[in-house]
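Appendix B, record 7
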Amino acid sequence: MTFRPLLIVNAILVAAMAGLSAWAWPAIPDAAQLPVQWGLDGEPHRFGSKLEVLTLMPAAAALTTALLWYLPQIDPRRANIEASAKFWNVVAIAVVALLAYLHGLLVLNAIGRTFVIIDYLLPALALTMIVLGNYLGKTRSNWFGGIRTPWSMSSEYSWEHTHRWAGRLFVASGLAALVAWPLTNATTAMTVLTASVVLTVVIAVALSYIFWKNDPSRKNDARAANGGA
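Structure tokens (predicted):
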């Protein structure tokens, strides 16, 4: 598998985002100051111009697509990242799809639809974590995607096992947020998701060291260096 799927799908998504912006442009007053950033409390923290609202996400999506297509071309472990092409394509498409979804929310808000954006953003973020977690364990060591620590990068055993467990934890983080959402509210669920993802990263870093330390090939190399003792 190559990296063409991310280019094709993301080009369609970026074009759709640009089309939505063109459609919304006449409906928004030129002098309007519109929300572009929200806090965990669901309240807008920053406002921007019509131009910013209608171009920010499409531009970010286009740049993200270009970057995620280019990085595999310069990875010193090119064979490994090509073997992880399915994961890489899914990541690139999921990120740009999330940006497209957020763009849709921003545009709807800009043309006068009133809603609490975090109520709609939370499930999208949680589902993104679940999707990424499902594919994370299928990667091979590379320089641009995954849990890259000195230990996971120097041990395929550590990389494989760390990412397998990290993938499960990312899925659990997304599911925890989706469960918390109807039981509490989107703000609390977003806090659950954020805390779970941070905890997952911390655990993954620790696991990468533990698996590296217990790598059978590393132990065999150490025995060989000591004359088989």
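Remarks on this record: The longest helix spans residues 156-183. The mean pLDDT is 91.
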